[in-house]
Design a protein that fits this description.
Elements: H1 3-16, E1 22-28, H2 32-43, E2 47-55, E3 58-65, H3 66-73, H4 76-84, H5 92-103, H6 112-115, H7 120-128, E4 134-135, E5 140-141, H8 145-167, H9 172-175
Antiparallel strand pairs: 1-3, 2-3, 4-5
Helix pairs in contact: 1-8
């Protein structure tokens, strides 16, 4: 298994498993063929792979499930939040396109946390006070710290299980039945 496939599996397992709407993974530019192959296989299950940003030898890829992400992005509170931040979209793909454009700038778009399934209260908290909050695994919690710890632990266990399967010789397409 390539380094690229392992990195995608480790980072995106929770998205492929349906636990999280999207994931961001940084991979080596040389892994482009692996990304294209996985994208083709996972597309049948509603996943998209979008190259968000390239810097040097690294490529930042957003992997998302369109239906799950759309459900989140069209919830009333998230839509209002993103609208306040200048997002205009009719589909999840359009919203990811806006995010991609913002990632090309100098300021990192911290609203990405919403896309990644972090609670809106924590994304708002981080934007207003990046030094505050409580580190709870994948993100800083500002509201429900215990809930964030439980969710982060669930994500960690899922990723760990997928990594174990990959270390035992199974490919991502075998694990998720998309090959």
């Amino acid at each position: 298994m390539s380094e690229t496939e392992f990195a995608i599996g480790r980072t995106c397992a929770v998205t492929f498993a349906g636990i999280k709407p999207a994931s961001l993974v940084a991979v080596h530019r040389g892994g482009r063929a692996t990304i294209v192959r996985l994208e083709r296989c996972f597309r049948r299950r509603g996943f998209s792979f979008v190259r968000m940003r390239e810097a040097g030898e690294r490529v930042l890829v957003c992997v998302y499930h369109a239906v799950r992400l759309e459900r989140l992005l069209f919830s009333e509170d998230v839509r209002a939040f993103l609208c306040e931040r200048g997002y205009r979209y009719a589909t999840a793909h359009e919203a990811v396109g806006v995010l991609k454009a913002r990632m090309q700038g100098e300021d990192f778009p911290h609203e990405v946390g919403v896309f990644l399934g972090y609670p809106l209260s924590d994304v708002r908290g981080f934007i207003s006070d990046p030094r505050g909050g409580c580190a709870c695994g994948a993100w800083k919690a500002y509201a429900d710290v215990e809930g964030a710890r439980r969710t982060s632990e669930r994500w960690r266990r899922c990723s760990e299980r997928i990594c174990t399967m990959m270390e035992n010789g199974k490919s991502l397409t075998q694990i998720f039945g998309v090959g």
